[in-house]
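Lay summary. Proteins are chains of building blocks that fold into shapes, and those shapes determine what they do. In this project we predict the shape from the chain. Here is one chain we studied, written as its sequence of building blocks.
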Amino acid sequence: MLFLCIHKLTAQKKYDYRLLFRRYILITVDVLLILTALFLYIRFFHPNALQSYHTFLDNVLWIAVIVVLWFFYSYLFNLYKLANVDRISATVKNTVLTAALTALTYLFMPFLSPTFPESRFPAFVLMGAMIVLVLLWRLCYAAFFIHPILTKKAIVIGAGYTGREIVRTLLHNPAIYHNTGYKIYGYIDDDELKQGKIYDELKVLGNGNDLFKYARRLDIDEIIMAIPEQEHLSPALHRALIDCENAGIVVEHATKIYEEQTGKVMIKIKANEYHLTNPYSIVHKDNFYAFFNRVINISCALVAGGFFLLVLPFVWLGNLFFSRGPLFYTQERVGENNKIFHIIKFRTMIVDAEKNSGPQFAQKSDPRITKVGNILRKTRLDEFPQFWNILKGDINLIGPRPERQYFVDELSKQIPFFKLRNAVKPGLTGWAQVKHHYASDFDDTLIKLQYDLYYIKHRSLLLDFMIIFKTIAVMVKFKGT
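And here is the predicted shape, written in a compact code that computers can read:
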């Protein structure tokens, strides 16, 4: 057992080493460069800031504030999304925006930065230095830190739906491939009918008896298990997996990798029916999380109430001049455990929008949406009245969006597990909302369901805070719909 643990730790360190060079080296050099730009700015434009009467804590505070701002804006503009590091246009745009906003915010924060600039020129120098230094480094990173030296070599166990789906995800999705750099050599499958066949450009190399032989010959880093948990492994395959683990090769389940890389659960389509690839352990109860989640919900709702009062007159005026009718819009929605409640929002569509058409999904450039409503949707301001629903306990700040009973009934006929999303309290915003656009048809709804089920399975305070930051990014960039 000790031998097995040591080898597993060794294999994990190899994986961590790869990630270090792919993301954390990028982060470390970024931070060093923005601090270099800050030092040059202080040295030449505020030399008195370096005098001895400034304490060590002053310097630490100046450094901490600019680093926090850098990471805040870099998160909003996906600066550390590895899929973008070798895309020149995305790299330039995101770096310029992040550096410019970091520098401007930092310079005009009283008491938290060295001094206010005496003219506009020093401000442009700090901003320009950050942009030039970081941009040059990132272009070098894109040129030299490429996949051939950082690949993760793997074999997939099982050439069925799950195995082929994980191959398509890891190798043919550019965003995910850039995150992982997998090099998959082929499949191992005990089904005699699949031997030698090619699926998604990869060959079935052999059966369980051949696994360890290929793992040693190809110097495999990871075995990806794509066999459903309820299926039994053949004795030969079971022995080979143990041999691989004893040799320090990591064994991971395909659904776990899929969820980590895509942020959604895997769905299998068979005979025009939809099934969860791994239907077990979707819903988890956590009393600690539930308590603090409620405290955060109430706190945020009270704070948002003040902001709501500030925007209310402007929304009322816009409604008065451009879209006469009720200011608010209420509608029945399905909540936790299929309980019906009334949601309240700012009205964004014309009055009686569904009078002739009946219930239907909102479309891109939907003619029913008013001019004011379009602005409210893009900034997500139409959702602010729902903080009243949060205070009442109808919804959470974070969770699956509450759906209408009509759509729940219709979609449940096509997707048997659709009502799983009602096992938890719905939310004002959620993982599906920040990862995918508005659902305008069945395919979009299916994708958003995958994200919702991922959230239900993995929900935590950390994930909730990530969703809050991503929601802020959507609002700042006017990407709501």
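What the prediction tells us: The first strand starts at residue 152 and ends at 157.
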